[in-house]
Amino acid sequence: ESYDMGGHETYMHKEIHEQVDAVDRVLRGRIDDRFATVRLGGLNLDAREARAVRRVKILGCGSAYHTGLIGAQLIEELARIPADAEPASEFRYRNPVVDPDTLYIAVSQSGETYDTLAAVQELKRKGARVLGVVNVVGSAIARETDGGVYVHAGPEVCVVSTKCFTNTAVAFALLALHLGRIRDLSVADGKRIIAGLRRLPEQIAEVLRDEERIKELAAEYADAKSMMFVGRVRGYPVAREASLKLKEVSYVHAEAYPASELKHGPLALIEPAVPTVAVLPDDELLEKNRATLEEIKARSGRILAVAHQEQDKADHTIVVPKNEVELDPILMGVPLQLLAYHTALALGRDIDKPRNLAKSVTVE
Ligand code: G6P
What we know:
The protein is an alpha/beta fold. It has helices at 11-17, 19-27, 47-52, 62-79, 88-93, 114-125, 140-144, 163-182, 187-208, 211-221, 235-250, 286-298, 328-346; strands at residues 31-32, 37-38, 55-60, 83-87, 102-108, 129-134, 147-150, 226-231, 253-258, 276-280, 303-307, 316-319. The strands form three sheets. A five-stranded parallel β-sheet has the order 4-3-5-6-7, with helices on both faces. Strand 6 (129-134), helix 7 (140-144) and strand 7 form a beta-alpha-beta unit. It starts with 10 loop residues before the first helix and ends in an 18-residue tail after the last helix. The mean pLDDT is 96. Residues 61-64, 108-110, 113, 116, 159-161, 357, 359-361 line the site of 6-O-phosphono-alpha-D-glucopyranose (G6P). This is Glutamine--fructose-6-phosphate aminotransferase [isomerizing].
Protein backbone atom coordinates (compact mmCIF):
# COMPACT_ATOMS: atom_id res chain seq x y z
CA GLU A 1 0.00 0.00 0.00
CA SER A 2 1.26 3.45 -0.85
CA TYR A 3 0.41 7.11 -0.41
CA ASP A 4 -0.89 7.19 -3.99
CA MET A 5 -4.61 7.97 -4.06
CA GLY A 6 -5.18 5.19 -6.57
CA GLY A 7 -8.25 6.80 -8.13
CA HIS A 8 -9.99 7.57 -4.82
CA GLU A 9 -11.04 11.14 -4.09
CA THR A 10 -10.01 11.00 -0.46
CA TYR A 11 -7.69 8.96 1.70
CA MET A 12 -10.64 8.05 3.88
CA HIS A 13 -12.37 6.40 0.95
CA LYS A 14 -9.18 4.68 -0.13
CA GLU A 15 -8.51 3.41 3.39
CA ILE A 16 -12.04 2.10 3.86
CA HIS A 17 -11.61 0.08 0.67
CA GLU A 18 -8.15 -1.15 1.67
CA GLN A 19 -9.66 -3.04 4.61
CA VAL A 20 -10.10 -6.24 2.64
CA ASP A 21 -6.33 -6.50 2.08
CA ALA A 22 -5.44 -5.02 5.44
CA VAL A 23 -7.37 -7.67 7.36
CA ASP A 24 -5.81 -10.35 5.22
CA ARG A 25 -2.41 -8.94 6.20
CA VAL A 26 -2.99 -8.92 9.96
CA LEU A 27 -3.90 -12.62 9.74
CA ARG A 28 -1.13 -13.65 7.39
CA GLY A 29 1.47 -16.04 8.79
CA ARG A 30 -0.10 -16.06 12.24
CA ILE A 31 -2.66 -18.85 12.12
CA ASP A 32 -1.62 -22.21 13.48
CA ASP A 33 -4.24 -24.70 12.27
CA ARG A 34 -2.59 -27.66 13.92
CA PHE A 35 -3.16 -26.33 17.43
CA ALA A 36 -6.19 -24.17 16.54
CA THR A 37 -4.42 -21.06 17.75
CA VAL A 38 -2.32 -18.16 16.50
CA ARG A 39 1.39 -17.42 16.75
CA LEU A 40 2.22 -13.93 17.87
CA GLY A 41 5.98 -13.69 17.59
CA GLY A 42 6.44 -10.36 19.34
CA LEU A 43 4.18 -10.94 22.31
CA ASN A 44 6.90 -11.84 24.78
CA LEU A 45 4.52 -13.60 27.11
CA ASP A 46 5.04 -17.32 27.66
CA ALA A 47 2.28 -19.78 28.51
CA ARG A 48 3.07 -19.74 32.22
CA GLU A 49 2.93 -15.93 32.31
CA ALA A 50 -0.25 -15.89 30.24
CA ARG A 51 -1.91 -18.28 32.68
CA ALA A 52 -0.93 -16.10 35.62
CA VAL A 53 -2.78 -13.05 34.26
CA ARG A 54 -5.73 -12.27 36.53
CA ARG A 55 -7.05 -9.20 34.76
CA VAL A 56 -6.50 -7.22 31.55
CA LYS A 57 -6.63 -3.45 31.30
CA ILE A 58 -6.55 -1.81 27.87
CA LEU A 59 -5.61 1.85 27.43
CA GLY A 60 -5.93 4.08 24.37
CA CYS A 61 -7.45 7.32 23.06
CA GLY A 62 -10.19 8.04 20.53
CA SER A 63 -10.76 5.20 18.09
CA ALA A 64 -7.94 3.24 19.72
CA TYR A 65 -9.86 3.31 23.00
CA HIS A 66 -12.93 2.01 21.17
CA THR A 67 -10.97 -0.91 19.72
CA GLY A 68 -9.90 -1.52 23.30
CA LEU A 69 -13.57 -1.87 24.27
CA ILE A 70 -13.97 -4.51 21.55
CA GLY A 71 -10.68 -6.12 22.63
CA ALA A 72 -11.77 -6.34 26.26
CA GLN A 73 -14.98 -8.12 25.24
CA LEU A 74 -13.06 -10.54 23.04
CA ILE A 75 -10.58 -11.32 25.82
CA GLU A 76 -13.37 -11.89 28.32
CA GLU A 77 -15.32 -14.08 25.90
CA LEU A 78 -12.49 -16.16 24.48
CA ALA A 79 -9.96 -16.22 27.31
CA ARG A 80 -12.34 -15.74 30.25
CA ILE A 81 -10.07 -13.15 31.85
CA PRO A 82 -11.83 -10.11 33.34
CA ALA A 83 -10.95 -7.24 31.00
CA ASP A 84 -11.86 -3.63 30.49
CA ALA A 85 -10.72 -0.58 28.56
CA GLU A 86 -10.27 2.98 29.71
CA PRO A 87 -9.16 6.20 28.00
CA ALA A 88 -5.40 6.39 28.56
CA SER A 89 -5.62 10.01 29.70
CA GLU A 90 -8.17 9.27 32.43
CA PHE A 91 -6.09 6.38 33.61
CA ARG A 92 -2.91 8.34 33.98
CA TYR A 93 -4.53 11.32 35.68
CA ARG A 94 -6.35 9.36 38.36
CA ASN A 95 -3.42 7.77 40.17
CA PRO A 96 -4.58 4.22 39.40
CA VAL A 97 -3.79 1.18 41.50
CA VAL A 98 -1.19 -0.70 39.48
CA ASP A 99 -1.63 -4.39 40.06
CA PRO A 100 1.15 -6.92 39.37
CA ASP A 101 -1.33 -9.61 38.25
CA THR A 102 -2.90 -7.36 35.63
CA LEU A 103 -1.71 -7.38 32.04
CA TYR A 104 -1.81 -3.83 30.67
CA ILE A 105 -2.22 -3.25 26.95
CA ALA A 106 -1.61 0.10 25.26
CA VAL A 107 -3.36 0.51 21.91
CA SER A 108 -2.45 3.13 19.32
CA GLN A 109 -2.36 3.56 15.56
CA SER A 110 0.55 5.99 15.53
CA GLY A 111 2.30 4.70 18.61
CA GLU A 112 3.02 8.33 19.46
CA THR A 113 -0.11 9.59 21.25
CA TYR A 114 1.20 11.42 24.29
CA ASP A 115 -1.50 10.40 26.75
CA THR A 116 -1.09 6.73 25.88
CA LEU A 117 2.70 6.93 25.98
CA ALA A 118 2.59 8.69 29.34
CA ALA A 119 0.30 5.95 30.70
CA VAL A 120 2.78 3.31 29.49
CA GLN A 121 5.69 5.13 31.12
CA GLU A 122 3.84 5.48 34.41
CA LEU A 123 2.95 1.78 34.35
CA LYS A 124 6.51 0.75 33.57
CA ARG A 125 7.83 2.93 36.37
CA LYS A 126 5.53 1.06 38.73
CA GLY A 127 6.77 -2.31 37.53
CA ALA A 128 3.76 -3.39 35.45
CA ARG A 129 3.93 -5.56 32.37
CA VAL A 130 2.66 -3.60 29.38
CA LEU A 131 2.03 -4.89 25.89
CA GLY A 132 1.34 -2.78 22.81
CA VAL A 133 -1.21 -3.20 20.04
CA VAL A 134 0.27 -0.71 17.63
CA ASN A 135 0.24 0.01 13.89
CA VAL A 136 3.42 1.99 13.31
CA VAL A 137 6.43 -0.29 13.61
CA GLY A 138 9.22 1.08 15.82
CA SER A 139 7.06 3.93 17.20
CA ALA A 140 7.51 5.23 20.75
CA ILE A 141 4.80 3.03 22.28
CA ALA A 142 6.06 -0.02 20.37
CA ARG A 143 9.54 0.63 21.78
CA GLU A 144 8.50 1.28 25.35
CA THR A 145 6.23 -1.74 25.77
CA ASP A 146 7.48 -5.21 26.73
CA GLY A 147 6.10 -6.82 23.59
CA GLY A 148 2.90 -6.82 21.62
CA VAL A 149 1.02 -7.34 18.41
CA TYR A 150 1.55 -5.25 15.31
CA VAL A 151 -1.65 -4.31 13.53
CA HIS A 152 -0.23 -4.21 9.97
CA ALA A 153 -2.91 -1.88 8.62
CA GLY A 154 -0.36 -0.06 6.46
CA PRO A 155 -0.08 3.74 6.43
CA GLU A 156 -3.26 5.53 7.47
CA VAL A 157 -3.33 9.12 6.25
CA CYS A 158 -6.88 10.33 6.86
CA VAL A 159 -7.20 11.85 10.33
CA VAL A 160 -10.17 9.63 11.17
CA SER A 161 -9.28 6.00 11.59
CA THR A 162 -10.96 3.32 9.50
CA LYS A 163 -8.76 0.46 8.36
CA CYS A 164 -6.59 0.72 11.44
CA PHE A 165 -9.67 0.49 13.65
CA THR A 166 -10.77 -2.72 11.94
CA ASN A 167 -7.31 -4.23 11.89
CA THR A 168 -6.75 -3.43 15.55
CA ALA A 169 -10.00 -5.17 16.43
CA VAL A 170 -8.80 -8.21 14.45
CA ALA A 171 -5.43 -8.04 16.23
CA PHE A 172 -7.32 -8.18 19.53
CA ALA A 173 -9.25 -11.20 18.29
CA LEU A 174 -5.90 -12.90 17.59
CA LEU A 175 -4.61 -12.02 21.03
CA ALA A 176 -7.84 -13.20 22.69
CA LEU A 177 -7.70 -16.47 20.76
CA HIS A 178 -4.06 -16.95 21.71
CA LEU A 179 -4.76 -16.32 25.41
CA GLY A 180 -7.91 -18.42 25.22
CA ARG A 181 -6.12 -21.45 23.81
CA ILE A 182 -3.51 -21.25 26.56
CA ARG A 183 -6.35 -21.20 29.08
CA ASP A 184 -9.78 -22.81 28.59
CA LEU A 185 -10.83 -22.27 24.98
CA SER A 186 -11.47 -25.63 23.30
CA VAL A 187 -9.89 -26.80 20.06
CA ALA A 188 -13.35 -26.74 18.48
CA ASP A 189 -13.91 -23.13 19.47
CA GLY A 190 -10.40 -22.22 18.37
CA LYS A 191 -11.13 -23.72 14.94
CA ARG A 192 -14.48 -21.95 14.77
CA ILE A 193 -12.87 -18.56 15.46
CA ILE A 194 -10.06 -19.20 12.99
CA ALA A 195 -12.58 -20.08 10.28
CA GLY A 196 -14.47 -16.88 11.13
CA LEU A 197 -11.33 -14.78 10.92
CA ARG A 198 -10.57 -16.25 7.49
CA ARG A 199 -14.04 -15.29 6.25
CA LEU A 200 -13.66 -11.65 7.32
CA PRO A 201 -11.87 -10.19 4.25
CA GLU A 202 -14.48 -11.52 1.81
CA GLN A 203 -17.31 -10.42 4.08
CA ILE A 204 -15.83 -6.92 4.33
CA ALA A 205 -15.71 -6.86 0.53
CA GLU A 206 -19.40 -7.83 0.54
CA VAL A 207 -20.24 -4.91 2.85
CA LEU A 208 -18.28 -2.52 0.65
CA ARG A 209 -20.23 -3.67 -2.42
CA ASP A 210 -23.27 -2.14 -0.71
CA GLU A 211 -21.74 1.33 -0.84
CA GLU A 212 -24.27 2.90 -3.25
CA ARG A 213 -27.13 1.99 -0.93
CA ILE A 214 -25.29 3.32 2.12
CA LYS A 215 -24.65 6.53 0.20
CA GLU A 216 -28.40 6.88 -0.38
CA LEU A 217 -29.05 6.27 3.30
CA ALA A 218 -26.47 8.91 4.23
CA ALA A 219 -28.34 11.40 2.04
CA GLU A 220 -31.59 10.41 3.73
CA TYR A 221 -30.23 11.03 7.25
CA ALA A 222 -27.87 13.95 6.50
CA ASP A 223 -30.49 16.47 7.66
CA ALA A 224 -30.44 15.09 11.22
CA LYS A 225 -30.13 17.61 14.03
CA SER A 226 -28.33 14.98 16.03
CA MET A 227 -27.94 11.20 15.78
CA MET A 228 -28.23 8.60 18.54
CA PHE A 229 -26.16 5.43 18.25
CA VAL A 230 -27.17 2.50 20.41
CA GLY A 231 -26.06 -1.05 20.99
CA ARG A 232 -25.96 -3.64 23.74
CA VAL A 233 -22.78 -5.41 24.86
CA ARG A 234 -21.19 -6.49 21.54
CA GLY A 235 -23.00 -3.75 19.66
CA TYR A 236 -22.09 -0.96 22.06
CA PRO A 237 -18.43 -0.35 21.13
CA VAL A 238 -19.51 -0.38 17.47
CA ALA A 239 -22.12 2.28 18.25
CA ARG A 240 -19.52 4.38 20.11
CA GLU A 241 -17.02 4.25 17.28
CA ALA A 242 -19.68 4.99 14.64
CA SER A 243 -20.83 7.99 16.65
CA LEU A 244 -17.26 9.29 16.97
CA LYS A 245 -16.68 8.74 13.25
CA LEU A 246 -19.77 10.72 12.30
CA LYS A 247 -18.89 13.61 14.64
CA GLU A 248 -15.27 13.81 13.53
CA VAL A 249 -15.81 13.81 9.81
CA SER A 250 -19.29 15.28 9.23
CA TYR A 251 -19.61 17.57 12.30
CA VAL A 252 -23.11 16.20 12.86
CA HIS A 253 -23.68 15.92 16.58
CA ALA A 254 -23.98 12.32 17.69
CA GLU A 255 -24.22 10.46 20.95
CA ALA A 256 -23.66 6.80 21.71
CA TYR A 257 -25.48 4.99 24.48
CA PRO A 258 -25.87 1.44 25.65
CA ALA A 259 -29.37 0.60 24.40
CA SER A 260 -30.60 -0.19 27.90
CA GLU A 261 -29.56 3.27 29.14
CA LEU A 262 -31.85 5.03 26.64
CA LYS A 263 -34.79 4.91 29.03
CA HIS A 264 -32.70 6.56 31.75
CA GLY A 265 -32.52 9.90 29.98
CA PRO A 266 -31.66 10.13 26.29
CA LEU A 267 -35.11 8.89 25.26
CA ALA A 268 -36.23 12.48 25.97
CA LEU A 269 -34.26 13.58 22.90
CA ILE A 270 -35.95 11.21 20.48
CA GLU A 271 -38.04 12.92 17.79
CA PRO A 272 -38.06 12.74 13.98
CA ALA A 273 -35.10 15.14 13.68
CA VAL A 274 -33.01 12.91 15.95
CA PRO A 275 -32.71 9.52 14.22
CA THR A 276 -31.18 6.46 15.85
CA VAL A 277 -28.63 4.08 14.41
CA ALA A 278 -29.11 0.76 16.18
CA VAL A 279 -26.45 -1.95 16.05
CA LEU A 280 -28.09 -5.36 16.38
CA PRO A 281 -25.82 -8.39 16.26
CA ASP A 282 -27.61 -11.70 16.02
CA ASP A 283 -26.85 -12.78 19.57
CA GLU A 284 -28.78 -13.61 22.73
CA LEU A 285 -29.69 -9.93 23.12
CA LEU A 286 -31.43 -9.54 19.77
CA GLU A 287 -34.93 -9.69 21.26
CA LYS A 288 -34.05 -7.04 23.83
CA ASN A 289 -32.65 -4.89 21.05
CA ARG A 290 -35.86 -5.28 19.06
CA ALA A 291 -37.78 -4.05 22.10
CA THR A 292 -35.55 -0.96 22.12
CA LEU A 293 -36.51 -0.29 18.51
CA GLU A 294 -40.16 -0.36 19.57
CA GLU A 295 -39.50 2.15 22.34
CA ILE A 296 -37.88 4.48 19.83
CA LYS A 297 -40.68 4.03 17.28
CA ALA A 298 -43.26 4.84 19.95
CA ARG A 299 -41.56 8.27 20.28
CA SER A 300 -41.71 8.77 16.49
CA GLY A 301 -37.96 8.33 16.09
CA ARG A 302 -36.53 7.25 12.76
CA ILE A 303 -34.35 4.13 12.92
CA LEU A 304 -31.51 2.89 10.79
CA ALA A 305 -30.60 -0.63 11.89
CA VAL A 306 -27.38 -2.50 11.24
CA ALA A 307 -28.22 -6.16 11.53
CA HIS A 308 -27.88 -9.58 9.94
CA GLN A 309 -31.44 -9.56 8.67
CA GLU A 310 -34.03 -6.90 7.75
CA GLN A 311 -35.60 -5.38 10.86
CA ASP A 312 -39.32 -4.68 10.48
CA LYS A 313 -39.30 -2.14 13.33
CA ALA A 314 -36.62 -0.06 11.61
CA ASP A 315 -37.15 2.42 8.79
CA HIS A 316 -34.07 1.07 7.04
CA THR A 317 -31.71 -1.83 7.62
CA ILE A 318 -28.15 -2.27 6.48
CA VAL A 319 -27.77 -6.04 6.29
CA VAL A 320 -24.31 -7.27 7.22
CA PRO A 321 -23.13 -10.85 6.60
CA LYS A 322 -23.04 -13.14 9.61
CA ASN A 323 -19.76 -14.36 11.02
CA GLU A 324 -19.13 -15.95 14.42
CA VAL A 325 -20.93 -14.07 17.15
CA GLU A 326 -17.68 -12.90 18.78
CA LEU A 327 -16.42 -11.43 15.49
CA ASP A 328 -19.64 -9.85 14.22
CA PRO A 329 -18.92 -6.44 15.81
CA ILE A 330 -15.83 -6.11 13.61
CA LEU A 331 -17.94 -6.41 10.45
CA MET A 332 -20.76 -4.21 11.74
CA GLY A 333 -18.43 -1.24 12.07
CA VAL A 334 -17.58 -1.16 8.37
CA PRO A 335 -20.89 0.09 6.87
CA LEU A 336 -20.99 2.79 9.54
CA GLN A 337 -17.63 4.09 8.34
CA LEU A 338 -19.23 4.48 4.92
CA LEU A 339 -22.26 6.17 6.48
CA ALA A 340 -20.00 8.77 8.17
CA TYR A 341 -18.01 9.20 4.97
CA HIS A 342 -21.02 9.78 2.73
CA THR A 343 -22.70 12.05 5.27
CA ALA A 344 -19.55 14.20 5.33
CA LEU A 345 -19.39 14.16 1.53
CA ALA A 346 -23.04 15.21 1.24
CA LEU A 347 -22.36 18.08 3.65
CA GLY A 348 -19.22 19.18 1.77
CA ARG A 349 -16.77 18.59 4.64
CA ASP A 350 -12.98 18.46 4.48
CA ILE A 351 -12.91 14.70 4.85
CA ASP A 352 -9.24 13.87 5.26
CA LYS A 353 -8.51 16.82 7.53
CA PRO A 354 -11.52 17.63 9.71
CA ARG A 355 -11.35 20.98 11.44
CA ASN A 356 -9.66 21.14 14.87
CA LEU A 357 -8.31 17.58 14.72
CA ALA A 358 -4.86 16.05 14.27
CA LYS A 359 -3.95 12.53 13.20
CA SER A 360 -1.89 12.02 16.30
CA VAL A 361 -1.87 14.17 19.38
CA THR A 362 1.72 14.13 20.59
CA VAL A 363 1.30 16.85 23.23
CA GLU A 364 -0.56 16.78 26.49
C1 G6P B 1 -6.34 11.51 17.52
C2 G6P B 1 -7.04 11.13 16.22
C3 G6P B 1 -7.98 9.94 16.45
C4 G6P B 1 -7.21 8.80 17.07
C5 G6P B 1 -6.52 9.21 18.36
C6 G6P B 1 -5.58 8.15 18.90
O1 G6P B 1 -7.22 12.12 18.38
O2 G6P B 1 -7.77 12.22 15.71
O3 G6P B 1 -8.53 9.53 15.22
O4 G6P B 1 -8.07 7.71 17.30
O5 G6P B 1 -5.73 10.38 18.15
O6 G6P B 1 -4.51 7.99 18.02
P1 G6P B 1 -3.56 6.74 18.04
O7 G6P B 1 -2.50 7.05 17.02
O8 G6P B 1 -2.99 6.64 19.44
O9 G6P B 1 -4.37 5.55 17.71
